[in-house]
What we know:
Number of helices: 24
Shape: globular
Number of strands: 25
Strand content: 15-25%
Largest sheet: 8 strands, mixed
Distance between the termini: 42 Å
Helix content: 25-40%
Structural class: alpha+beta
Amino acid sequence: MYNVCVSAFRLIRAAALVAGVLGAAVASVQAQSLAPLAYHELAPGAIRPNGWLRTQLAVMRDHTTGHLDETYPKLRDRNGWLGGTGDGWEETPYWLDGALPLAHLLHDRPLLAKVQRYVDWSLAHQRPSGYFGPLTKAEQQAGHLLDVQGTQGEDWWPRMVMLKVLQQHYQATHDARVIPFLTKYFRYQLANLPAAPLGQWSEWSTTRGGDNLLVVYWLYRQTGAPFLLELGELLYQQTTPWTALLGGRDWVLEAAANQTGAHWMDRHGVNVGMGLKLPVVYAQAHPDQPQLPQALRTGWHDLMTLHGLPAGMFSADEDLHGNLPTQGTELCAVAETMFSLEQAAALTGDAAYLDALERIAYNALPTQTTDDYTSRQYFQVANQVQVQRGVLDFTLPFERGMNNVFGPYAGYTCCTANMHQGWAKFATHLWYATPAQGLAALEYAPNILTATVNGNVPVTVREETAYPFGDQVDFVVELKKPTAFPLALRLPAWCAEATVLLNGQPLRTDRGGQIITVARTWQRHDRLTLRLPMAVRTSNWARNSRTLERGPLVYALKIDAQWQQSQQAEEGPYFTLAPQGPWNYGLPRAVVDDPVGHITVVAKPVAADAPGFYWNAANAPIALTVSGRRLPDWQLSAGVAPQPVTARDGVYKGPVAATAEPLTFIPYGCTKLRVVALPVVP
């Protein structure tokens, strides 16, 4: 059914273009312009990270993110994005997409100067036609730039990533070169896409056209140039029909049932992570079509129902692969899904996307990289009881079996370049501006915000918190004079009841799962306190397994690991991890029925804004202790821990040890080996 539906959709779309529907759509868009944004992005440098977040970003700056162009031969040698004859595809723009916002977040002059070289080269070497990027093969042969047109160009996809880099550069600097540069390139696209469509050189461009559209609509909000709306329609028509796929449901069902070579690009986890935002990006031009935002709501629900894993991501190894905790998730899929959710939040204002973003950022993201941010896994596994080479349970294991190990180049190197945007863009999206000239704190971490409100009134807000390890967030407002503006706060859905205090006095209480607004005239030194009580709870996953949760953090069984370094000829150095103790435990039914009564929270104090690195087992500031019982028949098979089957009542019926043992669970993001989805035992 999926194949028939998608093929039919693409035929109808092509026929519609021929029949002139595209022109009618453009006329409609021009008549109504773009819909208002729910929230507005702030400049990348408006937020200064503090505390543990600053430590994390500084580690990135001091290691791979700050020095990838010096250590990674593909970027270091004859870089095509600096005019050389070396690699000119996606990996340099991927790296810049994280390194540039990181440089502005830390106000780091050496890194700012480094990324500026790449920005300057692109801006200075635009062809007369509007085309930009590395020298084409014809230009390399000619020894000089040519007036590239149509099929003389090369793959649209890497330019889409660079467009996002240039947008961020403009947001941070207001560089006067950027707007005319983008305008000229988008005129080039409008003129040349009919003859050289997105799929001319690769299907990556077809599946990822939403990233191109995102920047087109952003530029329209800067200039109001009508041709951009026409280009937007053309890009949407040439892009994989994510709206139909996400909203139609057959696609996600078939992906759960079978993994074949047919339409695999539509199941590729990174493509899915990017494609998620397309319906709501396009909805800016069509606010009268409620099926567009509904497609994302339906698609996200279905993805997490059929392919969701406890840490907040869907399986993506590389394809969608069901919800068993032996499945893998690619690091690029984590980073791109986070970015799509950051955009979806700004476009729709839906708190559910912010909750989903938080869950991924504080669980799936930190586990997949080493403490020095130098090695990473291509695929993480939810129930990861060892890290070894092998086929394991992946749809795409590759021939050398390196997808699960930690290494700078293990698996495929897209993640080596693309992982940097995860933390950096999460930090730049802690805050948004509101249409009412106020501010919105939509994700929580220690930072200092500098912005303007109520016209052009400067304000500084110091966010003091140990979140996600602590349950209190304080906002200290600094103004030169009393100023009225609204301050929006997200109350996570996991919080039963949040309390807001103003200068120590109760102001209001509200249920979780919404965004509230505190609108008042703010005084200098006002302190707004948000308390988000974090009760322990359990959630249900594949085969009736259970996961422990508290606040935004998912908890996993702590397993001591022995690290061993090895070398692979083609993929370089890598680490494997072997468990140093048993892992095959189940949670007693009594724990599931009454988690608060059976789980003890052991918390080390984490001072608000105190620097520190907490994303490893040794430094985990919170642990949950609970009793569990071993399952002797639950053993490794082909390198993975196949999830035990439970009966209809959700209880495992196989042999269970008679004696209970004390177990320690730590935040998933602090683990490298773990069991996060446990069977329930009597």
